[in-house]
Amino acid sequence: MPEEFQHLIPKRPPPPADIFAVYQATREFYREVEYRQEFESYCEWYRATADSHRKEYQKMQSDINIWGWFNRGKR
Fold it and tell me: Could you state, in order of their start, the residue ranges of all structural domains in the chain?
């Protein structure tokens, strides 16, 4: 067949196994992206929570220890 008419004839579709392999690779890629995004958001949440806990702990260090006053007489 002449070269100029090659574009008129549709090309054969790839075998089904190749289509599924591409689909599986694409799906695995998007799962990995989703996992990494969720992990990154978890890490950000954890850092923020740890920071607020550190601040609360520092604030508690300067508070008066009322519980210690009650326990002194029981020793």
Answer: 24-55
Tell me how far apart the 2 most distant CA atoms of the chain are, in Å. Answer: 106
What is the DSSP secondary structure assignment for residue 65, as one 8-state letter?
Answer: -
Residue 33 reports pLDDT greater than 80: yes
Tell me how far apart the alpha carbons of residues 71 and 66 are, in angstroms, rounded to a whole number.
Answer: 9
- CA–CA distance, 14 with 26 (Å, rounded to integer): 17
Q: Give the ranges where 2-61 is alpha helix by DSSP (H).
A: 16-61
> Encoding tokens for residue 21?
């392999």
26 neighbors 34 (Cβ within 8 angstroms): no
d(CA 66, CA 44) in angstroms, rounded, equals 35
Q: Is the pTM for the entire model greater than 0.85?
A: no
The answer to whether 9 and 1 have CB atoms below 8 angstroms apart is yes
Residues written for the chain: 75
